[in-house]
Amino acid sequence: MLALTGLSLAQSTNWRTHLHEELPLLGHRNWIVVVDSAYPLQTSAGIETVDTNGEHLDVVRVVLDELSKAKHVRPVIFTDAELKAVPETDAAGVTAYREALAKVLGTRETQSLPHEQIIAKLDEAGKTFHILVLKTSLTIPYTSVFMRLDCGYWSAEQEQRLRETLQKK
Predict the structure, then answer these.
(1) Into how many domains does the chain fold?
(2) Residue 41 carries which DSSP code?
(3) Residue span of the structural domain in which 62 resides
(4) Collapsing DSSP states into helix, strand and coil, what is residue 12?
(5) pTM for this model (two decimals)
(6) Maximum Cα–Cα distance across the chain
């Protein structure tokens, strides 16, 4: 198992163990991203890439399971808008992947944005916050699942009410 932080190398015995150990350190504004095999190694110091050598949907399931057990964070999920348009004739297995991903995500709210917009969000976040990229063996394009972590015990609505109260004072 190889973990890459920026351009420095670090050994990881098991990506699941790495995720389990790192999750308590992660908080709102951090990201966990499960990507296909062609996803590029990014060089921002805050972006760590771990080669899972695993099946894509299995890695997504494990990450979502770990996040469901965490009380301090919850995922805001993004997928590539392009995935909906990738034809089976150009990427064998994409239809089955889309169906399987929908089952894995279940009723979780998911936002679909153009790939470049999501990458720009990652690039910006990586300047200040840690991003864990879990690379899989999948060879279908636009299949990355991006999870921006949000506070698990404080909602956007609660934050908005707090800000409104502070403005009144």
Answers:
(1) 1
(2) P
(3) 2-168
(4) coil
(5) 0.89
(6) 60
